[in-house]
From TrEMBL:
Major enzyme class: transferase
GO function terms (MF aspect): transaminase activity
CDD domains found in the cross-reference section: GFAT (cd00714), SIS_GlmS_GlmD_1 (cd05008), SIS_GlmS_GlmD_2 (cd05009)
Species: Luteimonas terricola
Location of this chain's protein in the cell: Cytoplasm
HAMAP family: GlmS
One Pfam family matching this protein: GATase_6
Record-linked PROSITE patterns: GATASE_TYPE_2 (PS51278), SIS (PS51464)
Annotated gene: glmS
Active site (UniProt): C2, K604
Alphabetized UniProt keyword annotations: Aminotransferase, Cytoplasm, Glutamine amidotransferase, Repeat, Transferase
InterPro entries linked: GATase_2_dom, GFAT, GFAT_N, GlmS/AgaS_SIS, GlmS/FrlB_SIS, Ntn_hydrolases_N, SIS_dom, SIS_dom_sf
Name the UniProt record assigns to this protein: Glutamine--fructose-6-phosphate aminotransferase [isomerizing]
Length: 609
């Protein structure tokens, strides 16, 4: 979704802003702009479409300055137009904003009554006018920002410059991430560290309610009471190479192929220890996890599906009851809390608003025991949680989540095993067996990746279709859901997933020779049931595409296509069976010529409702 970058330096910051915005493109956006302080003037360029178009306009207009801010916008309030693109300007004050201002209508009426004219339909423009209003009253830029944000309801990350104060930029954060990058004689702000990695790795994460003043020679942060406060400096470990495509055609393809490495990194501490330790989830985790009587998982999208796999594992392995719910639903229903349950939020980005709000709601209901499974260190959701398991997938750029999903599953499997151990339900033999299964996992995933040429051939059958069904049973049903989500989001083919046993209760009516049916059918205890369900499809002319593993006794026949992973990997089978459905979606999208990494209408980080 929206992205922010800002810079103050002794050199021209326009290339820094443009490069930063390009690094933020993966988040999804529909327009881009920059504003710079040039002498005693604000100069601004905005364009709908790609950053490159805005860059061209800035180049031809000769933009150059030592202080500036930039933004990629994903439209919420007001259409995709140049006048709605950020930065917004009010009488020499320019501002970029991520988030949503809920009371913007009241503020707009009030400011219009004061004589302010609006040129956009955005919620953001009120903030620019509010800051100008307080500047008129005698405040300096920082004071005006601090006053203005106290009148806002909603979520914001803001970076602001003024033509009257060319020596600083000011910023504020509430509900949306914002960080300050520390350079030598130059400093930066950004909503995501990838935007400033070209210049520095040293970062300060702003906390909720913070404001800050950023000058060339220093930074001062203020807390929600406007008192100076020290925030710790961190060294980002996001590597620039994770933001480069390398030999791959798309980030999604790269990220699918990175999974053996990502899984290996994520499980490194488990494999090194050779046992499941509560400390995997934080140094004080044992005290929390030992008393847990159940688990409530909250997440969205692909992360919800990893939670859905985890429900099978947690109940079967640890014996604890486990519920999993879509965060945007949980946050708005009257839930009954059991404070002895562990609330687990799962989020690749760590900043999904629905998941964050669901976590806050759970806490307000009395849930004290919270664990975040997350891929982005220091992001909002882990910071708001008592315990954390960081997946080590590395930056995930493709909008379609791939390596984040499989690494989340490793964290969740470790949670199931750890809870089982603390409950006296994990024998030493079983623990050793699970560790061994993990140890072999990257190799098994690599075998599944080697099936790519066969899967690419299959994709030719999907490319002309309008619909597809995905079936699975038990712990593989969420993999069918994930396969359907991947296919629909990047190829735009309508895809639905069902537990195979549910087919006869309705969806079977959809099956005819135009409906390809993908079946996840590993050689587990439900295989014979799945085979019966497949007969039901075949009898109605449906064409079957079966992903299975060794010894499952499937043979190819007319209308039944089979791809086999080399061996059954037992309890971790859902992870291995994820790879073929990712590859099928990728190759189908490739053949259909869609924008694989930035599918239409979607954003990488969903920071709005
Ligand atoms: O960052 P999160 O894991 O919280 O994101 C949740 C969903 O928005 C995300 O998984 C989305 O469904 C992906 N586009 C799926 O590929």
């Amino acid at each position: 979704m929206c992205g922010i970058v800002g810079a103050i330096a002794d050199r021209d910051v326009v290339p820094v802003l443009i490069e930063g915005l390009k690094r933020l493109e993966y988040r999804g956006y529909d327009s881009a702009g920059i504003a710079v302080v040039d002498g005693s003037d604000i100069r601004r360029v905005r364009r709908t479409g790609r950053v490159a178009e805005m860059e061209g306009a800035a180049g031809s207009e000769g933009f150059s300055a030592t202080l500036g801010i930039g933004h990629t916008r994903w439209a919420t309030h007001g259409g995709v137009t140049e006048s709605n693109a950020h930065p917004h300007v009010s009488h020499g004050v320019a501002l970029v904003h991520n988030g949503i201002i809920e009371n913007h209508e009241q503020q707009r009426e009030r400011l219009m009554a004061m004589g302010y004219a609006f040129e956009s339909q955005t919620d953001t423009e009120v903030i620019a006018h509010l800051i100008h209003h307080y500047l008129q009253g005698g405040d300096d830029l920082l004071g005006a920002l601090q006053r203005a944000v106290k009148e806002l309801h909603g979520a914001y990350a803001l970076a602001v410059v003024s033509r009257k104060e060319p020596g600083r930029m000011v910023c504020a954060r509430m509900g949306c991430p914002l960080l300050i990058g520390l350079g030598e004689g130059e400093n930066f702000v950004a909503s995501d560290v990838s935007a400033i990695l070209q210049a520095t790795r040293r970062v300060i994460f702003l906390e909720e309610g913070d404001t800050a003043e950023v000058r060339r020679d220093g930074v001062q942060v203020f807390d929600g009471d406007d008192q100076p406060v020290l925030r710790e400096e961190h060294l980002s470990d996001v590597s620039l190479s994770s933001l480069e495509l390398g030999p791959y055609r798309h980030f999604m393809q790269k990220e699918i192929h990175e999974q053996p490495r990502a899984l290996g990194d994520t499980m490194e501490a488990i494999i090194d220890a050779g046992v499941f330790e509560p400390t995997l989830f934080g140094k004080d985790a044992e005290a929390v996890l030992r008393g847990i009587e159940g688990v409530q998982i909250l997440a969205c999208g692909t992360s919800f599906y990893s939670g859905s796999v985890a429900r099978y594992w947690i109940e079967a392995i640890s014996g604890l009851p486990c519920s999993v719910e879509i965060a945007s639903e949980y946050r708005y229903r009257t839930a009954v809390a059991n404070p002895k349950h562990l609330v687990v939020t799962i989020s690749q980005s760590g900043e999904t608003l629905d998941t964050m709000e669901a976590l806050k709601y759970a806490k307000s209901l009395g849930h004290e025991h919270t664990l975040s499974i997350c891929n982005v260190p220091e992001s909002a959701i882990p910071r708001a949680s008592k315990l954390v398991f960081y997946t080590r997938a590395g930056a995930e750029i493709g909008v379609a989540s791939t390596k984040a999903f499989t690494t989340q599953l490793v964290g969740l499997f470790a949670l199931a095993a750890t809870l089982a151990k603390l409950n006296g339900r994990l024998s030493e033999e079983k623990e050793a067996e699970y560790i061994e299964a993990l140890r072999h996992l990257p190799g098994s995933v690599q075998h599944a990746l080697n099936l790519e040429p066969q899967i690419a051939l299959w994709s030719e059958s999907f490319t002309p279709r309008h619909h597809a069904l995905f079936l699975g049973r038990g712990v593989h049903y969420p993999i069918a859901l994930e396969g359907a989500l991947k296919l629909k989001e990047i190829s735009y083919i309508h895809a639905e997933a069902y537990p195979a046993g549910e087919l006869k209760h309705g969806p079977l009516a959809l099956v005819d020779d135009a409906m390809p049916v993908v079946v996840i059918a590993p050689n587990d205890s439900l295989l014979e049931k799945v085979k019966s369900n497949m007969q039901e499809v075949r009898a109605r002319g449906g064409e079957l595409f079966v992903f299975t593993d060794a010894d499952s006794n499937f043979s190819e026949s007319e209308g039944v296509h089979v791809i086999r992973t080399p061996r059954h990997v037992g309890v971790l089978s859902p992870i291995v069976h994820t790879i073929p459905v990712q590859l099928l979606a990728y190759h189908t999208a490739l053949a259909r010529g869609t924008d694989v990494d930035k599918p239409r209408n979607l954003a990488k980080s969903v920071t709005v409702e």
